[in-house]
Amino acid sequence: MSFTSLPLTEINHKLPARNIIESQWITLQLTLFAQEQQAKRVSHAIVSSAYRKAEKIIRDAYRYQREQKVEQQQEIAWLRKNTLEKMEVEWLEQHVKHLQEDENQFRSLVDHAAHHIKNSIEQVLLAWFDQQSVDSVMCHRLARQATAMAEEGALYLRIHPEKEALMRETFGKRFTLIIEPGFSPRSG
């Protein structure tokens, strides 16, 4: 063995107070030094392993955080879409309900107005017929026909052919005259 390849070990302990260093002391110091070096290697390996594990935990945490963020964004988008769809359905239901209520109210007003118009026409015709020289059967027939036609939205008057000139002169274009040869030509 060459002296240039001898291992050199530095011992960081105080030398004994004696002038002679015993081999047991040196052996003990070398054993302690070897154990200390082994402990340093083991602790360094433990620290390195812990550091790698910590880095992996941090990387996993960042990855998990990104995944959670993506999931949250997807859930928020789904909730937003779902909420908008529900709100749209509710709005449409309310809008349809209001339209139906408006339609019902409009129908009620139209029915009331039609009933009022029908009654007014009937009263006017009955009052007018009372002032005319036409027989009562004809008056009642005309009143019923006028009432029925008013409900249908058109006024037609069925008359005997002999009364056509008189009716056209009297009513003008207020009624659509329908000639009925089977009616009685009597006048009052």
Task: Explain what the structure shows.
Belongs to the SctL stator family. This is Type III secretion system protein SsaK. One of its GO terms (biological process) is protein secretion by the type III secretion system. This protein has two domains: 20-131; 134-188, no CATH class. The chain has a two-stranded parallel sheet with strand order 1-2. Strand 1 (156-159), helix 3 (164-171) and strand 2 (176-179) form a beta-alpha-beta unit. The relative contact order is 0.05. The model has no long low-confidence stretch (mean pLDDT 83). The protein is built from three helices and two strands, in the order H-H-E-H-E. It is mostly helical.
Element-level helix/strand string = HHEHE
β-strand number: 2
Shape: rod-shaped
Spans of at least 5 consecutive residues whose pLDDT stays below 50 are: none
Mean pLDDT: 83
Number of helices: 3
Enumerate the strands of the largest sheet in spatial order, edge to edge or round the barrel: 1-2
Estimate percent helicity: over 70%
| Strand content range | under 5%
**Rg for CA atoms:** 58 Å
- How many domains? The number is 2
- Characterize the largest beta sheet: strand count, sense, and whether it forms a barrel: 2 strands, parallel
Terminal residue distance: 162 Å
- Going by helix content, strand content and strand pairing, the class is mainly alpha
